[in-house]
Structure formats: structure tokens, C-alpha cells
Amino acid sequence: MIRRSAFATVFLAFALAAAWGQTQGRIEGQVLDPAGNSLEKVAVSIVSQRTASVHYEISTDKGGKFIQVGLTPGNYLVNFRKEGFAPASKEIHVGIDETTRIDMQLKTVEAALQKTLSEADNLFLKGNKLFAEQKFPEASAAYKEAIKLDSGNWRYYLNLGLSQKRMNQPEESLAALKKAVELNPESPSANKETGEALARAGSLAEAKPYYEKAVSLSPDDADAHFNLGLCLSGSGEPEAAFAQFEKAVELKPGSADAYYQLGLSCINLQKNEKAVAAFESYLKIDPDSPRAVQVKAFLDFLKKK
Questions:
Q1: Would you state the pLDDT for residue 23?
Q2: What average pLDDT does the segment 186-205 reach?
Q3: How far apart are CA 71 and CA 288, in angstroms?
Q4: Which among 115, 127, 258, 275 is least surrounded, fewest beta carbons within 10 Å?
Q5: Does 250 lie in the same domain as 187?
Q6: Range of 228's domain?
Q7: How far is CA 130 from CA 125, 133, 174, 181, 185, in A?
Q8: pTM of this structure
Q9: What distance in Å separates the CA atoms of residue 120 and residue 126, rounded to the nearest whole number?
Q10: pLDDT for the residue numbered 20
Q11: Which domain-ending residue is among 109, 129, 152?
């Protein structure tokens, strides 16, 4: 029987906790009123942009401060609500083992306006529920009603664009997504989605700055690097595309698609050894995919050279 000392058990627990902490991020900040005074009991919701099921509900303390730890790296939408003030939100990026600071100053509103804004937010939440149920036309209608009440809210346009995307309405979706970026140029999600919409329409040159902005705002988002790589590859910039695919597999080593594109870019640049390594990694991840036959043919060809 293996015996483990109490010291060894404690040390192992500490080491695991430390390793876990190094892969998580945190958000902290402060909420103030228009005069710069701290606001207590502001409801703060933190919602993952990857999946709405990951969310946190906290509130500010007497100093108007809040903190949330244990966040998986990625993009989050942080919402602030308090009676007598206009609701506010901001999209932020949480990195690995980093603290992201977000300070917010809420604006006071009259009761009638606050009621209107609350109704708009309720319609937005209704749309989100319908979207999750894959009822995209109904979700789109709810977002449009929310926009009628609050036409300056970028979140409403972003989600409207996403629902229209699922409804196969590319022109309407692109218009809504562009409006979201116009209202909030610092949104990683809005920039990435707008870039994707433009790329699907064949406008790679126009898509490129949106993809680049998304990468700059969310540097450890593997999908953002992958999408930029595809855009650069299609635009005839193989070296730049190669760098993005390399970053994508570094951040997401389980992505077969990223290894496939990396292998192709290596072939174009005559980086044959790296191409072999990329395609072999692809086969380890997804050996039975329809693409596997082609990948094996690439490997046979490269190894004979």
C-alpha cells in the first residue's frame, strides 16, 4: 500500500491550486456616479461571450468595488444595473493569469427613461432566450423591438446580426454587425463577427482590419487568429497567414482545422518539415475525417521529397 505523508498531500494540493490559478483570470473594478462618488449595491453580471451558460452575478461593496476570480480566459460582457441610473455594459478580454480592470461611471436617468431602458433590456433578454432555443426569427423580432426603445445599445445590434446570420440573411446581418462596431469599436466579438460576415461575402480586403482589430483586442483567442490567417491566406499573404496559424495551434493545440491550414501554408512557403509536423498532428487529432485521405497523400508526397 502506498503511504503519502500529510506534508506531501498538502504540497500536492498547493501545487495543483497554483497551476489552476495560472490558467485563470480575474476581473476587478469600481463603479462611480456622475460626481465621482462610489456606488454601493450595483448589480454586476459577467457573461461569457462564448457561452451564456457561464455567468456570474455579484454586486459592488461600500466603496463601489467588485471582483470576480476564477474566470476562464476569453471575452466577457460585463453589465451594470442600479435603480436611478442608466444600465451600462462593456465587453472585456480576460487573459491567462491576468487581472482585467474595468471602471464604470453610471449616468443618472429620470424614472420614465429608466423604465424604457429596462423594457429594452427585458426584450434583449427575451431575444437571448429565444436565440438559445434556436428560434431565430422570434429572437430577431425581440432584438428589433429592443432597438426601437434604445437605438444606441451595441449589444442589441450584435445579437440581431447573429440571429440574422443564422436565418441566412447576410446583408441584414452585416449591416447590424457593422452598427455594433460603430457603437462599440472596442468589442472583440463585434469586430470578429463583422470580419467573418465580410469574408463570407468575398470582401477579404474589407474584412482584414476587423480581424486584425479582433486579434489585437483578444490576443489569446485562437479562433480570432485562425480567422485572420484564413483572410490573409486568401489575400495572398502567405507569410503573415503562416504566423497566424502557428499562433492558433499554440493557443488551441486540439484544433485539427488549424493544423490543416498550417500545413497548407507551410507547403506554399516550402517549409516542408513543418508541413509534415502539422499534418501528422492533424491525423493524431482527427484520423478518420474526410480530409484525412488528402492529408495522408500530402504526407506521402512530402516525405518522398
A1: 62
A2: 94
A3: 34
A4: 115
A5: no
A6: 221-305
A7: 9, 5, 21, 23, 27
A8: 0.77
A9: 10
A10: 40
A11: 109
